[in-house]
Write a structure and sequence with these properties.
There is one protein chain. With 165 residues, this protein is an alpha/beta fold. 29% of the residues lie in helices and 11% in strands. The longest helix is centred in the first third of the chain and has 10 residues. The two termini are 34 Å apart. 22% of the residues are buried.
């Protein structure tokens, strides 16, 4: 496995340009279990969790900058976000304290769905694949012409409501 831990954003961009197949990892609470469960396979990973340009919660230009690798626990406790109570509440309700201390806002926004038919690596799942696995059906809603698995992010709906960039 090829693993990169760039020291700055410029190095990360260069690595990702040279390795378009690479998966970005920060907290890893969604991706790494999926790799361990053999639901995904990746030969190249790029860890961005320590990049200063991608972390923190900073008041800036009349708004607040939230880095993609900011931990959910950091967001839930942020004084800079005191005017965004719904975001503080959403971040504080994600999973367990242990997960919130590791999970990032970027990962929460981009996490894969939790459909039990998609997130299953058992022999029967190799027979009839769902849409997300390249198959021709959704097991949750059999007459659907597309995947109807629910969106999983806890914080994205709040960011949408605040019209965040």
């Amino acid at each position: 496995m090829n693993v990169s831990k760039p020291e700055n954003l410029e190095e990360a961009i260069r690595f990702l340009s040279d390795h378009p197949e690479a998966r970005i990892v920060a907290g890893g609470t969604d991706l790494l279990p999926r790799i361990n469960q053999k639901l995904e396979s990746h030969d190249t990973l790029c860890y961005i969790d320590d990049l200063p340009e991608m972390s923190g919660v900073v008041a800036k230009d009349g708004g607040v900058f939230i880095g993609a690798s900011a931990r959910l626990s950091e967001i839930a406790a942020s004084k800079e976000l005191s005017g965004y109570t719904a975001l503080l509440q959403a971040a504080s309700k994600v999973a367990s304290p242990q997960i919130r201390n590791q999970a990032t806002i970027g990962g929460n926004i981009l996490q894969e769905n939790r459909c039990m038919y998609f997130n299953n690596h058992v022999p029967w799942s190799d027979v009839n694949h769902c849409f997300k696995w390249g198959g021709k059906r959704c097991f949750q809603y059999k007459s659907s012409k597309e995947c109807v698995a629910l969106f999983q992010s806890d914080v994205a709906p709040v960011l949408i409501a605040f019209d965040a960039d």
